[in-house]
Write a structure and sequence with these properties.
Layout: E1 17-19, E2 26-28, E3 33-34, E4 45-47, E5 54-56, E6 61-66, H1 70-73, H2 78-81, H3 86-90, H4 93-106, E7 109-115, H5 126-131, E8 144-145, E9 148-149, E10 173-177, H6 188-194, E11 199-204, H7 207-220, E12 224-232, H8 238-252, E13 254-256, H9 258-262, E14 265-266
Helix pairs in contact: 7-8
Length: 272
């Protein structure tokens, strides 16, 4: 006979529907999703997210901050030199600061994911180089700007923006990447598994490129995906950000603001 916790879509005793099985199962209810139905409810918080509130244990969460680097956010950086609006990327900074404050208060892991390319560019193939250099006169990854080579390890452009550097701590996790996707060719997945992290709260830039490709891979690997809408931004047209928010809610997981993150309440299943 199949154990009850292995029966997908079974009706649970609390009126929900089981998704997946064993320790990885969720319980779907009319008004929320419980990521950890097998865990003592006193450890759980309820988060008002879209499309559905969810219940989770903060000790299994991590804040993932993507590409908050000078080349994307600072005057004289790559985005600025490319004629794009770097100020739009800077709109993510206050939200990232708020998210960091909440993460520190709750003891969450903080994971910084960022471009650190080799100076000789041997880690990048032609398709990746072309995606950032569509014309011969356009400055691409690794080429020189006023402050040094673009997104190259040890360069000014690859450093975190000044507003965030004082908020970094010694035991934060650093993931150096060489593609938009923060999982590709990195040890991000190993870090998450060894530290027992199951839910990733996403912030950073550009929301429609490096943030979204990393969120998709997170979803493909069966981690829980949460986009912090006011802690992510892009220099792309507004519809690009809107599409990511739509898909984050309807495909990859959930979205919420940093205010909703801060306002999470203890989970009281009897009153739900």
């Amino acid at each position: 006979m199949t154990r009850p916790d292995r029966r997908i879509y079974r009706q649970t005793d609390d009126g929900g529907v089981q998704l997946a099985s064993s320790a990885d199962r969720w319980t779907l209810h009319d008004d929320h999703v419980n990521f950890l139905p097998h865990v003592d409810p006193s450890r759980l918080l309820r988060f008002d997210a879209e499309l559905m509130p969810f219940v989770d244990d903060p000790s299994h969460q991590a804040l993932v901050i993507i590409d908050m680097q000078n080349d994307f956010l600072s005057p004289g950086g790559w985005t600025d030199a490319s004629g794009l609006d770097y100020q739009k990327c800077r709109e993510a900074i206050p939200g990232v600061q708020r998210a960091l404050s909440i993460a520190r208060e709750r003891g969450l892991w903080v994971i910084w994911v960022y471009w650190h390319n080799r100076a000789d560019l041997r880690n990048l193939g032609a398709p990746t180089l072309y995606s950032f250099k569509h014309r011969p006169d356009q400055v691409g990854i690794g080429e020189e700007l006023e402050h040094g080579p673009v997104l190259t390890e040890g360069s000014w452009g690859a450093q975190m923006t000044d507003e965030l550097q004082p908020l970094m701590q010694e035991d934060d996790i650093h993931i150096e990447k060489v593609r938009m996707n923060g999982f590709f060719g990195t040890h991000l997945d190993q870090v998450l598994r060894t530290q027992g992290i199951e839910t990733l709260l996403f912030a950073g830039v550009n929301i429609d490129q490096c943030v979204t490709s990393t969120m998709e891979e997170t979803y493909f690997c069966d981690y829980n995906v949460v986009l912090l809408e006011d802690a992510a931004a892009t220099s792309s047209p507004e519809f690009c950000q809107q599409a990511v928010v739509f898909n984050a809610r309807n495909c990859w997981g959930f979205t919420m603001t940093t205010q909703q993150l801060a306002s999470a309440q203890p989970y009281c299943p009897d009153s739900q």
